[in-house]
Write a structure and sequence with these properties.
The complex is a heterodimer of chains A (179) and B (197). Chain A has 179 residues and is mainly alpha-helical. Chain A is 50% helix and 0% strand. Chain A has five helices and no strands. The termini of chain A are far apart. By secondary structure, chain B is mainly α. In chain B, α1 packs across α2. The chains are: A mainly alpha (179), B mainly alpha (197).
Chain lengths: 179, 197
């Protein structure tokens, strides 16, 4: 950029400077500056060390968290790999008492749960043929209309027992076949 | 080009930098005292031009010297020590003005963009025009007044002024043109007022 002439501006500035009195430096100016320089604490650079220490602590914390979470995931994988094997094994008793007078207890057979029949609620169960009238009929699971109280249950049982006895007495009264 | 320091000052700057790197703050301060004695008048004059209050100007000048010593490792030596400490003093003054919420921007800048001037309009040589120019210069904000002072009165190159004011030289050139237009507008406005009377 070429230097601007603008002589009016230059002349105006020159005249202003002539009228202006330059400020004088106070006597204590030098001592004030040097005093502040000598007593200035070195805390200006301290924050850098604090910041560096904070960064190191943060990185260390993050690294530790990553390592810890990594171990936990590995442990979970080990656990999930062997769930079927443990349930299939039959657990044998730790102590075996070899007593001839006492028969060793038979190993418990694995329970085989019967499949639950699908039944609509509030519907009477279909009439099932009773193969043995002497057998006590168990209360069906889906008996929504059946009595649920204990007293009612007892009554039901009593009725069944009486019916059973009645059947047995009838059998006894029947004439026996020819020998 | 930015004014380069003389050889003696360059040696002192190197000595201070070495002492500070070794941690000998006292010896470095003893060497630094030379610069405080040598340039306290100029730096104080600089801050007085920026802020009107004398007590504030003295405190700002002290702050500039103290900060220059504390940040001595950032002094690259591209400019003289005076130019470098003037830069610090300028920033301190601007921050002081901002804290005091003093205006740094002229509200008439919006009208200046459309106005056009000839270079001869600011070189008339007429007495009344120069007198009006003195009044118009007093109305400029502190930072614009400093720019005009450094460029027209102290005759410093734009590169050095850009270093002091922490700005781009091209931006300062644009700003200088806007200031010229503003001064001319103010002068013409006052001339019209005098004619109407």
């Amino acid at each position: 950029m070429n230097k601007l002439n603008d002589n009016d501006i230059r002349e105006a500035l020159r005249r202003s400077e002539e009228k202006r009195t330059a400020p004088t430096v106070p006597d204590d100016f030098f001592d004030s500056v040097m005093g502040r320089i000598e007593t200035e604490p070195k805390t200006i650079k301290l924050w850098r060390w604090v910041a560096a220490a904070a960064c190191i602590a943060l990185v260390t914390g993050i690294g530790s968290a990553v390592l810890f979470s990594g171990k936990t995931a590995q442990e979970l994988e080990m656990i999930t790999e062997t769930p079927v094997k443990e349930s299939a094994e039959i657990q044998e008793p730790a102590v075996v008492i070899n007593d001839t007078a006492v028969e060793p207890a038979a190993a418990p057979e694995p329970k085989l749960e019967a499949p639950q029949p699908k039944v609509k609620p509030n519907t009477k169960p279909a009439a099932q043929p009773n193969p043995n009238p002497n057998l006590r009929m168990e209360r069906p699971v889906y008996a929504a209309n059946e009595p649920t109280t204990v007293a009612a249950d007892n009554e039901t049982i009593d009725n069944a027992v009486s019916q059973d006895e009645a059947n047995s007495n009838y059998a006894e009264r029947q004439p026996k076949g020819n020998d | 080009m930015i004014q380069k320091a003389n050889i003696d000052e360059q040696k002192r700057v190197s000595t201070i930098a070495d002492l500070l790197s070794k941690g000998d703050r006292k010896a470095a301060a003893a060497e630094y005292a030379y610069f405080v004695r040598r340039y306290s008048q100029q730096v104080l004059d600089f801050t007085v031009r920026m802020v009107s209050n004398r007590a504030d100007a003295e405190e700002l000048a002290q702050n500039a010297f103290v900060k220059a010593f504390n940040r001595f490792e950032t002094f690259e030596g591209r400019a003289s020590f005076l130019t470098w400490v003037s830069r610090i003093a300028y920033n301190e003054s601007i921050n002081h003005l901002k804290r005091r919420k003093l205006s740094l921007v002229d509200v008439d800048d919006a009208r200046i963009a459309d106005s056009r001037i000839d270079d001869d309009e600011l070189s008339t040589g007429r007495e009344e025009r120069i007198s009006l120019m003195e009044d118009a210069l007093d109305c400029l904000p502190p930072d614009e007044r400093m720019l005009v002072q450094l460029y027209y009165y102290e005759d410093k190159p734009l590169q050095e002024i850009a270093y002091v004011m922490d700005a781009e030289a091209n931006a300062l050139a644009v700003r200088l043109h806007r200031i010229r237009k503003k001064l001319l507008m103010m002068i013409k406005h006052k001339e019209n007022e005098q004619v109407e009377r």
